[in-house]
Amino acid sequence: MTLSTEQRTIIEGAIRDIPDFPKPGIIFKDITTILNNPEAYKTLQDHLRDRYASYNLDYVAGIDARGFIFGATLARDLGVGFVPIRKKGKLPYTTVSEKYALEYGVDEVEIHIDAFGETKNARVLLIDDLIATGGTANAAASLIDKVGANCVESCFIMGLTFLDGIKKLEEKTPVYSVIEVN
Ligand code: AMP
Fold first, then answer.
1. Tens-digit pLDDT profile for residues 20-49
2. Residue 1 pLDDT > 90, yes or no?
3. Which domain holds residue 125?
4. Which strands form 95-101's sheet, in the order they lie side by side?
5. Is beta strand 16-19 parallel, antiparallel or unpaired with respect to 27-30?
6. Ligand 1, from 18, 20, 130, 168: best to mutate by most atoms within 8 Å of Cβ?
7. Which of 10, 41, 86, 96 could be disulfide-bonded to 90 (CB atoms 3.0-4.6 Å)?
8. What is the CATH number of the domain that holds 158?
9. How many CA atoms lie within 13 A of 131 on its CB side?
10. How buried is residue 147: exposed, middle or buried, by Cβ count under 10 Å (0-12/13-18/19+)?
11. Considering Cα of 154, then 155, then 158, then 161, what sign does the dihedral take?
12. Ligand 1 atom with the shortest distance to the CA of 165
């Protein structure tokens, strides 16, 4: 299930472009203007709920930090658990971690070793606000795999289709972008 024309107009109209943030040449896709717009936020979350209602998910896993907002709301709507995938050093219990390359240097994401409880091969939806190079999402999908769960799809509010992040992640999981940015 994808967006209706009316839903797309409402959601796209609520995304704000900030040129040259955080550095020159980047157009930052600001989602705070979805969150403070009750019609857009509800339209988006209702769409995600309708799409994933039939996926038999056990968990939604959101990426630090904007993935928490959309992911936790969706998990609550679907009646399943929510799991945070966090930047290094934030999770208090035993973690599994994965490094990924940035333009300059490396970063690292972590998950709790028991994040998916006793469920064997838990069916997990990975979610974040945006996929660009795909580095963050690829590392997050690897973490889900490392702790013995099954990432059944990766979902982004926006997918930058002019980069090859989506193609790379598709080698691991199906990818759904609510809005494709060309
Ligand atoms: P990447 O690992 O390159 O796919 O980058 C994805 C992460 O960086 C996501 O968590 C996004 O929130 C953030 N990000 C990257 N590019 C943008 C952008 N143009 N606008 C907003 N957020 C971005």
1. 999 999 999 999 999 999 999 999 999 999
2. no
3. 55-181
4. 95-101, 106-112, 81-87, 59-63, 123-131, 150-160, 175-181
5. antiparallel
6. 130
7. 86
8. 3.40.50.2020
9. 31
10. middle
11. positive
12. 4
- What is the torsional sign of CA 44, 73, 165, 21? positive
Cα–Cα distance, 130 to 67 (Å, whole number): 9
Residues in the chain: 182
Query: Does residue 12 lie within any of the structural domains?
Result: no
pLDDT of residue 102: 87
**Ligand 1, residues at Cβ distance < 6 Å:** 26-29, 63, 66, 128-137, 165
103 is an active site residue: yes
Rounded (10°) CA dihedral 141, 143, 78, 128: -50
0.90 cut: is pTM over it?
A: yes
84: preceding bond cis by omega (within 30 degrees): no
Q: How far apart are CA 86 and CA 140, in angstroms?
A: 9
Cβ(67)–Cβ(39) under 8 Å? no
| Consecutive H or E run containing 92 | none
Report strand pairing: 150-160 vs 27-30.
Answer: unpaired
Neighbours of 39 (CB within 10 A): 12
- For residue 1, being part of any structural domain is answered with no
